[in-house]
Amino acid sequence: MERTSVAIVGAGPAGLLLGCILAAEGVDFVLVEHRSREHVLSRIRAGVLEQASVDVLDRYGLGERLHREGLVHGGVYLQAGADRFHVDFEELVGRTVTVYGQQQVVLDLMRHHDELGSAVHYGATDVMPSGVDGDDPHLRFTADGEEHDVAADVIVGADGYHGVCRTLIPDEVLAPAERGYDAAWLGILADVAPSTDELIYALHPDGFAMHSMRSPSVSRLYLQVDPTEDIADWSDERIWEGLQERLATPGWTLTPGPITEKSITPMRSSVAATLAYGRLFLAGDAGHIVPPTGAKGLNAAIADVALLGAALAEHARGSDGPLGAYSERALARQWKVQSFSQFMTDLLHTPGSAVPADERAFRYFSRVGQLRYVQGSRYAQQFIAEQYTGLAIA
Ligand code: FAD
Ligand code: DHB
């Protein structure tokens, strides 16, 4: 049997960053991931880091490549029909965001663990946390053909929405508050220079569209589609046509290019009633998920582990106050994030086909009205700028 202070399940951004924080704080840990390292690195997901997230990565010496290669954006464009306007975060709230793919964050974190020689096990099977409601939690797993039984002081579930850790919490305690959406995102990655200097979020009668990027030569774009759509029905031509149509504005052209990845992701909002159960603590998607429109999923995971890492360090030094307060503090911030993500999602998407035509028209035009209000109101723009660039992690 092995022994550690913290056993972490899941090597996504939450688990990997928590490991880096614990290492910096001198707390020993074991990190177990059931996918291969290559698989974790190949998952294309989020792309925008809040200023607060960049600050956390800097604090632990993890921001070097991010500052070299990340694209600092001082604002975003919002668009209603063909009417596009800029929301200038720097001018409105004095803050920026950094466009840097989640995969790059994950790669930086993995490399840091390589340098530290951390106990990180990829490709583990039979990952079984247990005993979290008693005094003797264990994490059992098999890695590289060897069976492990790790006795831990604390287990952290950083294993995402479909992970095993949240299933250890009784249903009536986990009790997630949830809502679904009648829309999904079709996302593409394309080998073409972005046609915009900053991100464009557009509402069009056919649905939402977005233009993001990963680098000066790689574009990331999204289209709202019905959740029942099959990606096989979306040829590259059809995707570019949809994007051209929805993002069109006078005097601007969207340059298409070879699509290297495409997939459809459904949208959901969910928040567990607690992130703490006995010796188990949830962080990131394991505890909550947001629809992607506010670019908050990755940032919320970073915020959770910044709080949890500091609390676990205090716990190791004999003070349990911050760990006892973790769930409440993280959820208080998370509900603000949920509210903003829901606001951005409702603002920018058209209702699904099940909604009657007259109500669809009403909802669409009221959203156009709201976007025009934002366009003309510094207060409304500050409301968006402050939340998009990220609330304090406290
Ligand atoms: P994850 O990244 O999900 O990491 C959890 C890890 O745990 C995974 O590596 C998983 O393999 C591992 N794991 C699961 N079960 C087990 C187990 N039983 N044993 C061991 N390991 C386990 N957010 C945005 O802001 N913008 C986006 O565009 C965006 N796109 C997304 C697209 C997709 C398809 C998905 C799923 C999410 C997207 N998100 C996006 C959300 C964002 O990527 C997540 O919020 C972020 O990854 C959360 O990090 P995490 O570490 O908490 O969870
Ligand atoms: C990206 C994803 C988002 O959800 C978002 O709001 C902005 C950008 C991206 O993948 O680049």
Task: Walk me through the structure.
This protein is of the alpha+beta class. The protein folds into 2 domains: 2-73 and 99-178 and 268-342, FAD/NAD(P)-binding domain; 180-267 and 351-388, D-Amino Acid Oxidase, Chain A, domain 2 (2-Layer Sandwich), CATH 3.30.9.10. Helices cover 38% and strands 29% of the residues. It has helices at residues 13-24, 37-42, 51-59, 64-69, 89-93, 102-116, 171-174, 236-247, 297-316, 321-348, 357-376, 378-388; strands spanning 2-9, 29-32, 48-50, 71-73, 75-80, 83-88, 97-99, 120-121, 125-130, 138-143, 146-157, 177-190, 200-204, 207-215, 218-225, 259-271, 276-277, 280-282, 288-289. The strands form 3 sheets. Strands 1, 2, 8, 9, 10, 11, 17 and 18 form an 8-stranded mixed β-sheet that branches. Strand 1, helix 1 and strand 2 (29-32) form a beta-alpha-beta unit. Helix 1 (13-24) runs parallel beside helix 6 (102-116). The longest helix is centred in the last third of the chain and has 28 residues, at 321-348. Bound molecules: flavin-adenine dinucleotide and 3,4-dihydroxybenzoic acid. Flavin-adenine dinucleotide (FAD) binds at residues 9-15, 32-35, 40, 45-46, 102, 127, 158-160, 163-164, 265, 284-285, 292, 295-298, 301.
